[in-house]
C-alpha cells in the first residue's frame, strides 16, 4: 500500500506534553509526528483526562459511544483536537466517570492504582477496536496499540463481527501486564471463547497484555535486544514462552528522540552548545550546581541520575557504593519519584552528603533537561531496559552514559574500550553484572577517562554526533505497517 494513503490509529494512555509518567509519553508524541512527516495519516487516541481537556482545544465528533453496561454511565463522547506543536490529530475519550478525576493516569495522588483501571483501560481498548471496526468517521487500516492499557483492542477486533483493521502491539515494558480478576471477562464484554491458556487467561486471571500478544497481527518492542530478551524467563515476566512462539511476528525497533531534545536550542536550558564548542555545557554545569546547592569545584565530575524509583532502574545497586563514588571526588544529582521507602532513604542521604549529593523527589521536566546538559556522566544501571531514552538524551547532550548491558542500553551505548576508541565509536561505559562493586568499578573507569580532557572531549563528540533522530526508526515502523497491510 502506498504510504501516503495509510491511516493509523495510535492508541496510548499517555502523551507528552499533555500527560507523562515515562518514556511511553515521549514516544507517543514523537513517533506519530515523525510518521506524519513520512505521509502516514496517523492519529492518536487517548483518554480525556482533565489535564488533556485543559490543554487542548477539543470539539465533539461522531456519535456518543455506549460504555460497558456494568458502568451504568452516560455514553462517552469522542473529542478531537491537535497535539501541541505538531499536525497530529488527537481523539480524546470524554467519560467524566472514568477519566475525569485529579491524580495520575493510573494512580491517585497517594500512588495507589485506581481500583477501576480494568474498566478504564478496557474502555480505551474497546474504543480503539471500534475505530478498527470503522464505526467512526476516521477509518484506520491499522490500530497501533501500546502497552497493556490498550492491549485488549486486538482481542476485541479478533472477535468483532466486522474487523477492518490490522493490529500491532508495541511492548514498551513487559513487566507491566494489566492482570485482573477473571470475573471481569463478561463485564468487559469479552467472549468466553477468549478465556483459555492460548487466549487471554493467565493463571486463572485475565491479562490485558497477554491478549495483545496473542491476538495482534504483529508484536513490536522498542529495541532488538529486548525483543530477544523477553523470549527468556528472566525478562519475559511469565510471557517468554508465548513471545517465543510468536518470534516470527515479533521485532524490535529502537526508539528515537524528538528534535526538541537538542543542546543547540533546548528552551529549558540556560545555555546552549554544540559538539564543536562545549563551553555552554560547562556553563550549564555551573548553573545546575547553583540551582541545587552543590559545592563549586569546576574540575569535579558531576554524575546525573533521573528516573522512576523502581526495581527496574537498579538504583539499589548504586546506594551501597554511593559513598565510594562521592569519595572519588564526584558529585551526584538525582531526580526521581516512585518507591516511597526509597524516596525517604534518598532524602536522608542528601542530608548526610550536603553539597556533594543533590536529591530532588518529584517530577520536573525542566530539571531533567538541565541535569542531562549539566552533568558529565549519566548513570543508568537498569536491571532491564526495553529501550531507555535518558541514555539517548545524555549522549546527545555530551553526557557520557554509564549503563548496564541490557535491552536498548546494550543497543545504543558503545563501551569505551581501546578498540572502540581506535575505531572512533565509543560513546559511554557499559557493565554486565548486577553488582554494586562492578558498577563502582565502571564509574571509576569513567573517572579515569574524565581526567584525560582530550580523550574525554573526543568521546563526548562521538556521542553527540550519533544520529538518534526518529528518521530511521519511523521508516522502520512504516516498513512494518506496509508489510502488515500488504
Ligand atoms: P521509563 O519509560 O522506563 O521510565 P525512559 O528512559 O524510556 O524510561 O523514559 C523516561 C522519561 O521520563 C524520560 O523522558 C525522562 O527524562 C523522564 N523522567 C523520568 N523521571 C522523571 C522525573 N522525576 N522528572 C522529570 N522527568 C522524568
Ligand atoms: C518503557 C521502558 C523504556 C522505554 C519506554 C518507551 O517505559 O521502560 O525502556 O524507553 O517505555 O518505549
Helix content: 25-40%
Main β sheet profile = 9 strands, mixed
Low-confidence stretches: none
From the N-terminal CA to the C-terminal CA, the straight-line distance is: 6 Å
Give the beta-strand count.
Answer: 18
Radius of gyration: 23 Å
Q: Indicate how many domains the architecture comprises.
A: 2
Number of helices: 21
> What is the CATH-assigned architecture of the largest domain?
3-Layer(aba) Sandwich
SS-based class: alpha/beta
Q: What small molecules does this complex bind?
A: adenosine-5'-diphosphate, alpha-D-glucopyranose
Mean pLDDT: 97
CATH homologous superfamily title of the largest domain: Glycogen Phosphorylase B
Beta percentage is: 15-25%
Shape assignment: globular
The spatial strand order of the largest sheet comes to: 3-4-5-2-1-6-7-11-12
CATH topology of the largest domain: Rossmann fold
What is the CATH level 1 assignment of the largest domain? Alpha Beta
Amino acid at each position: 500500500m502506498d504510504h501516503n494513503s495509510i491511516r493509523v490509529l495510535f492508541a496510548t494512555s499517555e502523551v507528552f506534553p499533555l500527560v507523562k509518567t515515562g518514556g511511553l509519553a515521549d514516544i507517543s508524541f514523537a513517533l506519530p509526528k515523525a510518521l506524519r512527516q513520512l505521509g502516514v495519516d496517523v492519529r492518536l487516541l487517548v483518554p480525556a483526562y482533565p489535564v488533556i481537556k485543559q490543554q487542548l482545544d477539543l470539539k465533539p465528533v461522531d456519535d456518543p459511544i455506549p460504555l460497558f453496561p456494568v458502568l451504568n454511565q452516560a455514553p462517552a463522547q469522542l473529542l478531537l483536537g491537535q497535539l501541541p506543536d505538531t499536525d497530529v490529530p488527537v481523539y480524546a475519550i470524554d467519560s467524566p466517570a472514568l477519566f475525569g478525576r485529579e491524580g495520575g493516569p493510573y494512580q491517585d495522588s497517594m500512588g495507589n492504582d485506581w481500583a477501576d483501571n480494568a474498566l478504564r483501560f478496557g474502555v480505551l481498548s474497546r474504543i480503539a477496536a471500534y475505530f478498527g471496526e470503522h464505526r467512526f468517521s476516521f477509518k484506520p487500516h491499522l490500530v497501533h496499540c501500546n502497552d497493556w492499557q490498550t492491549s485488549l483492542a486486538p482481542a476485541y477486533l479478533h472477535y468483532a463481527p466486522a474487523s477492518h483493521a490490522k493490529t500491532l502491539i508495541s511492548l514498551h515494558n513487559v513487566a507491566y501486564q494489566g492482570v485482573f480478576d477473571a470475573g471481569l471477562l463478561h463485564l468487559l464484554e469479552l467472549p468466553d471463547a477468549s478465556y483459555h491458556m492460548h487466549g487471554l487467561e493467565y493463571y486463572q486471571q485475565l491479562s490485558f497484555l497477554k491478549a495483545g500478544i496473542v491476538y495482534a497481527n504483529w508484536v513490536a518492542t522498542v529495541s532488538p535486544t529486548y525483543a530477544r530478551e523477553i523470549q527468556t524467563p528472566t525478562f519475559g515476566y511469565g510471557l517468554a514462552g508465548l513471545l517465543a512462539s510468536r518470534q516470527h511476528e515479533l521485532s524490535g525497533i529502537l526508539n528515537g528522540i524528538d528534535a526538541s531534545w537538542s543542546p543547540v536550542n533546548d528552551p529549558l536550558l540556560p545555555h546552549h552548545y554544540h559538539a564543536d564548542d562545549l563551553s555552554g555545557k560547562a556553563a550549564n554545569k555551573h548553573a545546575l550546581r547553583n540551582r541545587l546547592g552543590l559545592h563549586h569545584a569546576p574540575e569535579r565530575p558531576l554524575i546525573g541520575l533521573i528516573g522512576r524509583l523502581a526495581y527496574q532502574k537498579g538504583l539499589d545497586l548504586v546506594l551501597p557504593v554511593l559513598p565510594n563514588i562521592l569519595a572519588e571526588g564526584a558529585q551526584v544529582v538525582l531526580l526521581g519519584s516512585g518507591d516511597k521507602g526509597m524516596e525517604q532513604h534518598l532524602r536522608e542521604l542528601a542530608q548526610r552528603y550536603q553539597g556533594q549529593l543533590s536529591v530532588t523527589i518529584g517530577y520536573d521536566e525542566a530539571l531533567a533537561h538541565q541535569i542531562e546538559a549539566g552533568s558529565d556522566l549519566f548513570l543508568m544501571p537498569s536491571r532491564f531496559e526495553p529501550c531507555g531514552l535518558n541514555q539517548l538524551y545524555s549522549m546527545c547532550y555530551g553526557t557520557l552514559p554509564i549503563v548496564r548491558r541490557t535491552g536498548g542500553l546494550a543497543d545504543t551505548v558503545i563501551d569505551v574500550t581501546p578498540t572502540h576508541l581506535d575505531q572512533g565509536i565509543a560513546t559511554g561505559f557499559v557493565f554486565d553484572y548486577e553488582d554494586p562493586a562492578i558498577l563502582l568499578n565502571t564509574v571509576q573507569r569513567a573517572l579515569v577517562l574524565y581526567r584525560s580532557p582530550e580523550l574525554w572531549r573526543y568521546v563526548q563528540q562521538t556521542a553527540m554526533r550519533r544520529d538518534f533522530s526518529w528518521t530511521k526508526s519511523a521508516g522502520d515502523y512504516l516498513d512494518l505497517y506496509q508489510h502488515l497491510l500488504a
